[in-house]
Specification:
Layout (H helix, E strand, L loop, with lengths): L3 E9 L4 H4 L9 H24 L5 E4 L1 H6 L1 H9 L3 E4 L12 H16 L9 E2 L10 H7 L4 E2 L10 E4 L27 E6 L9 H4 L14 H18 L6 E8 L1 H4 L2 H14 L5 E3 L2 H9 L13
Parallel strand pairs: 1-2, 1-8, 1-9, 2-3, 4-5, 5-7
Antiparallel strand pairs: 6-7
Helix pairs in contact: 8-10
The protein binds zinc ion (ZN).
Zinc ion (ZN) binds next to loops.
Organism: Periconia macrospinosa
Protein name: Carbohydrate esterase family 4 protein
InterPro entries: Glyco_hydro/deAcase_b/a-brl (IPR011330), NODB_dom (IPR002509), PgdA-like (IPR037950)
């Protein structure tokens, strides 16, 4: 038995929703909204063609606003055999929502997405912008979500997600005596949610998306630079993975409004063909990783920390 590599494309179909999430309700720039429409239409069509060319089934994390605004596109994605996962309603940042608002958004999004999956249900969630909150795991468990793709305790192994609400961290607060905050964190406690880790260094948005309102984005990075960065991550993990029954996951996060651009599509083609030159590679959905991990067919790791 050789090594196994489970590669996944997580596709955030933010479309217009990401640009509508101005947090304060201030008006959005219609030109930015048009970039979202490009993503939901032209970008999505091109990414579907790319995946079909290489016979890859991916996981599309779809804000319910996108699903309700572009229903024909979501049907097309489902009909092509891809998985649909949760990603907020208008890409709201969980970190700015009350627990009640988190419940309302998750409940509504789940109801909307279930309408597209023909009774198959929705198993996974990724936090918009990977901004989470202390109560997030409790809310996901309440709604029966099985896996998450927002945390970064590891970069290439699945694990049971520690519940942030069950670990105490004390923020540095210089208004108080130093003895107040000089305390270690308490022990991490795993939840029932499977984590398939997120990784900013396997994401197309920061290098390839120009956004004048987001200082972390660039937009003009040479695709060959990012191709090398992604390949080097794969190369190291592949080299270090034990030959006899070792495994790792390689979750890539992309957005049709970014990866649907010609120069980025060509990068994906080169990357997929290079990855496919390795023994033991399988392209799978996130749901498949979750299922294999829960059934003990994928080893994963246990995340430890705190006292
Ligand atoms: Zn997103």
């Amino acid at each position: 038995m050789g090594k196994r590599v489970l590669c996944c494309y997580g596709i955030d179909l933010d479309a217009v929703s990401g640009w509508l999430n101005t947090i304060t309700g201030t008006p959005q720039n219609p030109t930015d909204l048009s970039r979202g429409i490009f993503g939901a239409t032209v970008g999505t069509n091109r990414v579907l063609t790319l995946l079909s060319k290489y016979n890859i089934h991916a996981t599309w994390f779809v804000p319910a606003h996108t699903a309700e605004s572009f229903p024909g596109q979501i049907h097309k994605i489902v009909d092509a055999g891809h998985e649909i996962g949760l990603h907020g309603y208008t890409h709201e940042f969980v970190s700015s929502l009350s627990v009640e608002q988190q419940r309302d958004v998750l409940g509504k999004s789940m109801e909307v997405l279930k309408g597209f999956t023909g009774g198959k249900g929705v198993k996974g969630w990724t936090a918009p912008a990977w901004k989470t909150g202390r109560e997030v795991v409790r809310v996901l468990e309440e709604f029966g979500v099985e896996y998450d793709h927002s945390f970064m305790h590891h970069d290439s192994q699945p694990y049971y997600l520690p519940d942030p609400a069950q670990t105490d961290y004390i923020e540095t607060n210089v208004e108080k005596p130093a003895s107040h905050w000089m305390k270690p964190m308490t022990a991490l406690k795993p939840s029932s949610i499977v984590e398939i880790p997120a990784n900013w260094h396997l994401d197309d948005w920061p290098p390839f998306q120009l956004s004048l309102s987001q200082p972390s984005t660039h937009g003009y990075v040479d695709t060959h630079v990012i191709e090398r960065l992604w390949k080097e991550q794969f190369e190291y993990l592949y080299r270090e993975c034990p030959e006899d029954g070792g495994s790792f996951v390689f979750p890539i996060s992309i957005h049709p409004q970014v990866s649907g651009k010609p120069q980025v599509l060509l990068m994906h083609e080169r990357l997929i063909e290079w990855i496919n030159g390795h023994e033991g590679v399988e392209w799978v959905t996130f749901e498949r990783v979750c299922r294999e991990f829960k059934e003990g067919r994928l080893e994963g790791v246990v995340v430890e920390g705190g006292v």
